[in-house]
Amino acid sequence: MAADNREFRSSGIPLLAYNRTYSDDQDIDSGHEPLTPTPSATPSLLSRPSAYSPLNANSYITPAEPLISPSPISSPPHAYHDSPTFYSQNQCPKLVSSSPSLRPSPAKAPKDEEPLLEPRFLQGLLSFTWFVHFAAVSFTAGVVQLTFRQFYWFDEDNWNSQWVGKLGFSQDVAMNGLQFVAKVHEIIIVASVSGMVMHFCRRMLVGGGIPFGFLTGAYQVSSPDWLFSKNYLWASMPRFRSKGENKSTPSRQRALLGFGAAAICIYCNTVGPSSAIVMIPELEWWRVSDPYNGTLNVSYVTETFDRNYPKILNQSIINVNCSMDNSSDFVLALCPGAGHDDLAIWAESVAMGGPAHTMQVMQRRTSIRRELTSTTTLLDLEGSALRADNILSVATVPHASMAKLAGAFWNFVSNSEKTGVEDINRPRIFQREDVYSPLVQVQCKVFRYNTSMTHRADMMPVFGAKALRNFTAMAKGEPDAYNDESWVLPGEYWDYQRSEADLRRTNFTWVPVASHFPKHRPSLGAVVNLPQGIARRLVGGGNVTFQDSLIIPCMMDIRWVGVRLSFDPKSNNFLEHDISDLTKTLGAYWKPGHRLSRPEKRLLASRNLSDSNIQVKTSWASLLDKPPGLTVKNHTSNIETLFEKFIETGTHRNFQPPIFEDAEDLTDLLTHTGTITAGVLSHVVADGISRVSYRSDVGLNLRDVGNGAMSWLDLTNIAGLSRVDAKEVPSNFADAMTPYHWELERYGYGYGFVSRTAIFGVTILLLHAAVVFAYAIYIVIFRFSENGWSSKAWGSLDSILLLAMNSKPSSVGMHAGMGIKSNELFRETARVREGAESNVELILGDCVNRELRIVHGKPYHGS
To answer: Low complexity composition bias: which ranges (predicted)?
Structure first.
């Protein structure tokens, strides 16, 4: 019979394909021919059900109407037909079906049939997939709520006091455990994402189809390897309309699928790190929600805001006692020049090669210290080294009144049992209100007296301001007057005959320069004269050295800059502000040709740099240079004594910078001399401006006692560790004072939005929760719609493989058993359609006319 069938096939006569029938114990690969051919009871997917009736094995088909091609389509060698298979004249030739090479699975009994697409709304709502969604969202909610609550766990080096530590677990073990929990969280979220992806994959399979390359990706949504595989790349590419056309037709659906698949894959690979970021506590500063246990109210500096941060320094704000020669040391300690001793120690250290850009200032009557910082490297940003005619130093230091208040406040808090700070291993306080520090720019130019006396135009001493930055003009986008011109130093400050003694002397003088500027005036000017021995080469050979003097005019721009103060008493005991690193904070404003961005302009406004600078009168500035009495020989002024630290005396007196590149190079020597000069003046002025209201007292409003009164504590003596009792004063007692609230922080492990990585981690996790919520709304709407359904089919890779194994092979994938040879296969469309005997089949290839789509609610075998 088999021979007969082959004979009829070769002769081109249409023949009914039939199933081979085997007994249960017969091997399908034994090669034995069945005794009796058994015709199929139902047509194949590609035949019309109404075109035939059951026939005998040797019968011919007589269709009711012409349905088949004039000539039959021959099957591949050794292929067997499951059921009668016919092809319409319009069907795609790529989908020539052949019988499977494996024995088909036995059909289920009718009682096992169940709907593949369940239309009933309640059916499937309590599936395991929805439990995964709920678990993932609940897990995320439990994790991120710690961040939103700013939950604090424990202080640094205080692990053993925690209940987990008391159980014997080390801190490292606990953190590793949190990493494990984060991994579990990642697995659940990826499973949730996979469940949502599979729903849309099912919709495409039973609908218009899905590119084969994307079908495999639906089962490995978290695999980055798949994203770089040929499956993804070729499935995302557009297909050509026909072989005769070179024009490629991009497919919007393919592009959207490709983008969505890439986004999902990338997202799934960020979930793990994000969960770990959010779940593992960060070692940071954390704000205490109820500082001082509610026992304190607000502290005060007993000066108005305008007098604490004045815009004009003149005779009106001078403490008369500061200008008297017979004032006591106690009084002088409250004056702007009170930092002379600290400056002298710093200058001596610099002269010996010590650090020139930092200086510690000890606050009187407290243990708190301030750090004065400066930089002379901002001009290096312009791509050229410092030059003798372009020397700049910028300095800043926290306000002395704020240091006094912070030290006094902490002395009280740390010695009070009611505040609760004794339970914090490492506390830190910072102010809530706006606080300002002085920012001083000093530019100097260096000239030699003997060459200047020639009165040549290029040798005349002038003030230069090109290195200064007028932040007020920069913020408004106006031209910077500092960059336009230079101003000749008046002759009274240099143009006079000097004796040998005059040339050997150090001299310092303040110069009022504001009158030379019609607009955007600088704050102050100064002239420094320093002794310097100059070697001159003789015509006949050899050198001769003579005493000369250096004339150094300096221009200054001084202004208040907004800062954030912090005091960490158990670490370095410094009152710090957030602009100590001047190059990092302000370096962008010195870049050549740099146009300010909007954030940089906003920074000028937020830092108060856009406001006008401070106008300093020489009457006030003279307090910084007041002769310190008999302690210095010849009544040399304060500033002159600082420069004397760098003078070497021999045959000639020379100003000797601690370090410079080439001692034989006069230009190099003058450059470093100017740099030291600008640095000394910037330190002197910054320290003096910071003490402008140092004579003020500090106090604390403990609480409001009612009846228009409050409990007031004078912190001035407490700063000196003296016992002081609180007293009741009227509630308007502090109306003319400057209030400051001190927030409390602690250093340890906690959760919160303290870094960009924490924000990123929470965003990634909440994105999944938002997608699940939107997906749930979509499912409800979809299930209530006319074509809504639910299904559990093909939820895993093994189930889709079993479906493929039990489906008729198509010509496009017939020879792929040994590997996919052509990448075009990944572009082919995969669909699930109704097959013979209520079975479902996976079809790969182009569309077929009159395919039988899956019917909602219809039972299928193996569904």
So the answer is: 34-50, 93-108
